Fold this sequence. Notes:
The complex is a heterodimer of chains A (184) and B (100).
Chain A: E1 11-15, E2 20-23, E3 28-33, H1 39-45, E4 56-59, E5 62-68, E6 71-76, H2 81-90, E7 98-101, E8 106-112, H3 116-120, E9 136-141, E10 144-152, E11 155-161, H4 165-181
Antiparallel strand pairs in A: 1-2, 2-8, 3-6, 3-7, 4-5, 5-6, 8-11, 9-10, 10-11
Chain B: E1 3-6, E2 11-14, E3 19-23, H1 37-45, E4 53-59, E5 67-73, E6 79-84, H2 92-96
Antiparallel strand pairs in B: 1-2, 3-4, 4-5, 5-6
The complex binds zinc ion.
Amino acid sequence: MTAHANILTPGTLADTAAARVTVTAAPGRLSLRARGDLSALETALGVTLPAKIGSRAQANGIEALCLGPDEWVLLTAPENVAAVEAAGAAAYEAHPHSLVDISGRETTVAIDGPRAVDLLTLGLARDPETVAAGEGRRTFFDGQTVILWRDAESKFRIDMWHSFAPHLLGLLETGCRELAAETL
Amino acid sequence: MLLIHCPYCDETLPEVEFTYAGEAHIARPENPSAVSDEEWEAFLFLRENVKGNHYERWRHAHGCGRFFNAVRNTITDKFLTTYEAGAPRPALETLTENGK
Ligand SMILES: [Zn+2]
């Protein structure tokens, strides 16, 4: 396996009165592409795949987010990835699809705090308020494609490719301190 | 910045999430080796370059990833409509009636 210079150790990066930015422990990640009647696949994976872009579902230890008309990202515990892959492989005959382990690709940061939404506007092209709590989107953050998860009103996760993490995390860290320094 | 409606996401989003992909409704010949050099040249290179309402492709590259089609006025940059790839070309009259 290729050693990657930009894989960051989990831990808190910035913690101010405005917001907190934490690199999370890496989850297992899989990319799923499938079309048509998904029922055989859903039965095999034990999760109903959300049909609307941006919506999420959680069951059987899998968290699924719909990214496109035929595309989902699945999060699961790292030790569960092989079982999810095996479940997909067993359903392949019934429903051909693509299920790829992409666990080695991304860094996730958790962002929370009273001004988490303001912090996101530093790099997000779209209005963060258009992503409701409990939803997620693939979108654009300061020049990079990221996946944004909104877990609660002021609680977010951002998945970014490893090599972009130093740049994006630098921006988030500076933003945390700037927002905390602001006198409202 | 332009705001573009993605027909797959059903959301109107900033232009930076999208990439432009040239004129729409240009079908690749089914059997390229059967067409003449002139037909192949037309497929590869000849475009309308419309001044006005232009049927064009866009891709929601930093979003759902899908290609779709749009009608955009190349003078005003106003989008008249966007529609899914493979859908028929909407008639211009249906998009511009009532002087809009
Ligand atoms: Zn889209």
